[in-house]
Amino acid sequence: MSVIATHSSGAWPWPDSLDALQAAPQHHCVTFENDRVRVLDTRISPGDTVPLHTHRWASVHHIQNWSDFVRRDAEDRVLVDTRGRPAPASLPWIQWGEPLPPHTLENVGATELHVVSIELKSGPFASSHP
């Protein structure tokens, strides 16, 4: 396992095999990458569940298309369920995101969830912990 970012207990504790690109390539694709950032284009069709994966860097999320979703941890406990919450008032919508430990994400809505994330690989936010 390579050390890329730190976690509250030191090095990022999850293996590279859980990185979104390796663990869930059918939902994530890189549109740009250098030593400072990685830009991920994420698309999740209605009814799809993204396999267990991580996001090791803090990110700016550019939400292109909204759909309700359920995020679960590695033990299948619900972390976020957007059903019953108001959808973004307008799209696109920009949101900050901290690194995420192992999780799945199920699109429980009627439309594709489409997010472009700019992951910050270096700088003061790169070592934030989940």
What form results from the Cα inertia axes?
Answer: globular
Provide the helix percentage: under 10%
Order of SSEs, N→C?
EEHEEEEEEEEE
User: How is the biggest beta sheet arranged?
Assistant: 5 strands, antiparallel
**What's the end-to-end separation, in Å?**
18 Å
Number of domains: 1
* Sheet/helix structural class: mainly beta
Radius of gyration: 14 Å
Fourth CATH level, the homologous superfamily: Jelly Rolls
Taking pLDDT < 50 over at least 5 consecutive residues as the criterion, the unreliable ranges are: 1-9
Fold and architecture overview:
It is a single chain. By secondary structure, the protein is mainly beta. It has one domain: Sandwich (Jelly Rolls). The chain is 3% helix and 48% strand. It is built from 1 helix and 11 strands, in the order E-E-H-E-E-E-E-E-E-E-E-E. Strands 3-4-11-6-9 form a 5-stranded antiparallel β-sheet, with no helix packed on it. Strands 5-10-7-8 form a 4-stranded antiparallel β-sheet. A hairpin with a 3-residue loop joins strand 3 (28-33) and strand 4 (37-44). The longest helix is centred in the first third of the chain and has 4 residues, at 20-23. It is globular, with a radius of gyration of 14 Å. The model is unreliable at 1-9 (pLDDT under 50).
